[in-house]
């Protein structure tokens, strides 16, 4: 994983490997470099693919009795639990999130392996009746080599949510880690190694996306691509995948709206706003980035949300602050530019909108804009920072129209005590997941994925498992 000089390595075919070049890793709370990691090249990609293909061809994963694979995943989960206290501070430092949030992320990773271990021996086909002269049945085969390109905001969580079902189905996996936050992920590889995962079943490479990610996406021996990230990068990957007609799972972000009716429970709403947009400094694909509020409570909600934002303590993750830094200087500049643009377009800045004066790192104040209209960029474009846009509405129909008036469709939400209205919302909102009275409700068990530009395919839950298998049908004529 690392050596005494705080230099971290790639994991290829069961071995920790250095490289001729390195990537600097920054502490976003200070802006200082605190570690380096080996930066892979295309030859390393080819080595990883060769090892993965040898693993697939050997059948060491796919031919293994499913109950044995389940035991392997359970061991990985247990190994992750063992490393949490040592690994979480590293994730906190490279990403900026609090140590408790980093611990929760590792525990979520362990939960993925535990959950999919429970399904591994239940991937069952079916018998199809074709008459007395035939026996016909289906079964599932692993896709082969899954290339998984992981983003920087929740690297451990998002890596585990794809890695666990892929291994459960008997595949080999090559993970491309994010350049900005590559270190803590190596602990997942360590957990897999300690649990006895066969060589070649997992490789983890760090390196530039335009080189390493592109090499994986276009490699002739990759069978599937899983990607979480920007629309622009997703399109590029899909072009490469289309050249070889290989399946992909894409999660490309969102501009998600919470619809707040006048009968909403204010305590539930404010709790959800606290975590929906300010958790992880708003760097969440499914963040509550828009708040649509019924007009008769609009001023009250704006005031309450503004007070909430102003009361958050800004600081480093190690200090357990309420609002931690964004991940990089580039991200900070992008968020602040979008705030300036919102003001120029006529949105009312209620609080925030700038970098705190007393912080050295990549911080952005908790920001609330009111009177945001559908014509404004802040209404339609993903900020990926602690910036909330609030818009009034009058009728239920107008609320649904406003909620759906973006190119994204990842998640949506509704806050109301009216069960019938909540059920109407679940139909009317064009999103892969609808939250009612609690943002981020659900868990590992619930399918997650988007509509429209938010991508396609589902992760988490039983649905995710079937992204990592192919259906085979066997039709047998038995009569003489």
TrEMBL record:
PROSITE patterns: ALDEHYDE_DEHYDR_CYS (PS00070), ALDEHYDE_DEHYDR_GLU (PS00687)
Boundaries of every Aldehyde dehydrogenase domain copy: 16-474
Keyword Oxidoreductase: yes
GO MF assignments: oxidoreductase activity, acting on the aldehyde or oxo group of donors, NAD or NADP as acceptor
Catalytic machinery residues: 251
Pfam families documented for this protein: Aldedh
InterPro entries: Ald_DH/histidinol_DH, Ald_DH_C, Ald_DH_CS_CYS, Ald_DH_CS_GLU, Ald_DH_N, Aldehyde_DH_dom
Keywords: Oxidoreductase
Family assignment from sequence similarity: Belongs to the aldehyde dehydrogenase family.
Protein name from the UniProt record: Aldehyde dehydrogenase
Lineage, opening ranks: Bacteria, Pseudomonadati, Pseudomonadota, Gammaproteobacteria, Oceanospirillales
